[in-house]
Design brief:
The complex is a heterodimer of chains A (272) and B (389).
Chain A lengths: L1 H16 L3 H9 L5 H7 L12 E6 H6 L3 H12 L21 E4 L1 H4 L17 E4 L7 H5 L5 E3 L6 E3 L9 H5 L6 E2 L23 E2 L5 H4 L6 H5 L6 E5 L6 H8 L15 E4 L1
Parallel strand pairs in A: 1-9
Antiparallel strand pairs in A: 1-8, 2-3, 4-5, 6-7
Chain B lengths: L9 H27 L14 H15 L1 H9 L9 H22 L8 H4 L6 H29 L11 H24 L12 H27 L6 H32 L2 H11 L9 H19 L1 H4 L2 H26 L16 H33 L1
Classes of the chains: A alpha+beta (272), B mainly alpha (389).
Chain lengths: 272, 389
Amino acid sequence: MDSQRRKFLKMAGLTAVAGMGAPAINMLLKGEVRASETEASTAPALPTKSVKRLGMVVDVNKFGANPGLAQKCVEACHSIHNVPDFRNPDGSIDKKDEVKWIWAEKYEHTFPDASQYKRNVGLEELPVMTFCNHCDDPPCVRACPTQATFKAKDSGIVMMDYHRCIGCRFCMAACPYGARSFNWRDPRPFIKKLNPDFPTRMRGVVEKCTFCAERLAVGKIPACVEATGDTKAMVFGDLNDPNSEISKILASTFTIQRKPFLGTKPSVFYII
Amino acid sequence: MIEKALTGSSKYWAWMAFLAVLVGIGALSYSQQFQYGLGYTGMSRDVSWGLYISQFTFMVGVAAGGVMLVLPYYIHDFKAFHRITILGEFLAIAAVCMCLMFIIADLGQPMRLMNVLLHPTPHSMLFWDMIVLNGYLFLNLLVGWTLVHAEYKSPHRPVPPPKWIKPFIYLSIPWAVSIHTVTAFLYAGLPGRDFWLTAIMAPRFLASAFAAGPSLLVVMALIIKRVTKFDAGQVAIQKLVTIITYAALMNFFFIAMEFFTAFYSNIPGHKATLEYLFWGLDGANSLVPWMRFSMFIGAIAMVMILLPKTRYNEKTLGVACGMLFISLWIDKGLGLVLGGFVPSPTEYITQYYPTAGELAITVGVWAAGFMIVTVLYKIAISVRLNVEN
């Protein structure tokens, strides 16, 4: 907490020296300043909005090489977070009420803007893990009228306050990745096995992946990453730390992000 | 003054009772939705806004449309609007009330509504929408009530309205523009929703609003003329028709612009929703008949209000304005909001069908709006007729 505060004050001080003055500090304290603006005035300042910028690298090929791994990730996440399981009478997923934090999607749906023309045939079968991008510039946070969804300043995680959310679903319209789910009805009867260590939600609020903020707080790694074991199919870490494993992978491997042209700056990268 | 609404003919009471029944059915349905959650409606993960928000969006336009009377009357001193301007202001009150009801009906946690005030968030367009809508409601209540009250106080010796009200009247003019601009910003500022991501969203909203609001006013003025002694006057009605003509032409022009940009640029994301709305996409075509019908009756209505023969005949004029209103309602009150969700950000096509309960709530809000406008018009017209006799 203390070091975080110091970093923050340093950043504010630097900006003041650069002559941006009090309004700029105010913006900084509110966390509204853009990375490029800080860079323009103070060269060595933080490149992102948060002290840490937690992110993920998903290696799609490793999911292809380990059948069942994708489902294992989904189950780990959804069981820990008490995500309800809505089914139609025939056992298929009820698309209307569906709540999901992470799911295996087809490449053409996770990357609808990528060229699908004559792409390699095998890609069709690969499960592409799809979840919240924890954008550095999240449109959902911009849209939310109550700050019920907000960017954690220390970690960069896009968080949800289920007790403040009024259920207007503006964030769902704003998210360009379809990462958000709404509790169209009381989810509690549809939780397969209740995890007493994580809160359940009530009807009428939005929810999504939080990078397992509650597990990070006690020194664990996200549940999906844990589920991938030693496969390195998902690597989690701080994008702001040049020596982190994730930064090293990104520096040496070709990766893509979902819809980077929208300026949301996703923190999730894919090795295809 | 309110007592004017408490006396009336048996027709007046029958009309109010009819509306009360619809409001009652809507309220019962809402209590069910309140218990169950918004899964009571046809909305889904992919189509996360439905009829409530689309009706809300349309009614903001109807509310803003009132300014097409206030502006000529107060700024350009167009005297023929003397009798009809109050109808525009009172229509705006009812329309904004409907907007607020639709918003509340759409909230997953309506009891937390005040969180928008407790945690004011200037970077959210919804926060600004709340401010401008409530401000507009306040302005129209204040102005409308003060003007009618001035007539009410001295029916035999006409007195001008108090001077202090003038600034509020002038303020209400840009404010009317602001409500629909900010409402357009709810859509036009979202990345990844290509159909909504257009700089002419706000201009298009305003054009359709300035056609739809006055169209409804013409229809209501013609009905009022038949059921009461109150006549808005031929000059006022024809001036309104002129305004409607220009606004509707601009609206259809803007729609054509959307088609050009999407189809000449040939960018798939920009074409997809238009294709879904007018031709269907991958076999999904639930809105196609609606959108085509909207364009069809819109075109007929335009011809009717352009031809002198049908424009100067009250019956055909009423039909034309009614058709134009329905055309604009389908275009904005259905297609614009519902279409924006197809395809989804992950390019799935999910169609939305409102449930019976959701329709009942929607009809209930419309009925409540008609009740409000009936009561307000009853008061305004009774006071005015009292002055004139």
